[in-house]
Amino acid sequence: MAEQEKNRISVEIFGHSYKIVGSESTGHMRLVASIVDDKMREMHVHNPSLDSSKIAVLTAVNTVHELLKLKEQVEKLEEEVKKLKG
Length: 86
Fold this sequence. Notes:
alpha+beta, cell division, coiled coil, septation
């Protein structure tokens, strides 16, 4: 099977430029970068004294927390669907 074509784009996150390579559409990658930028800027508003590395780590921690909560919700919904199917 041929390797999936990679898309390459440049994005700006929290004032820094990054080159992103991935198999997703460039629109998807730009959306991800935009969300990360927004979350870092929001974290900076609440913690203006932190440097960008600490803001990045806190943003990652909060994002993983949100991911785990969403996974829990999906598991609960899957259980409900199983119960309804009987």
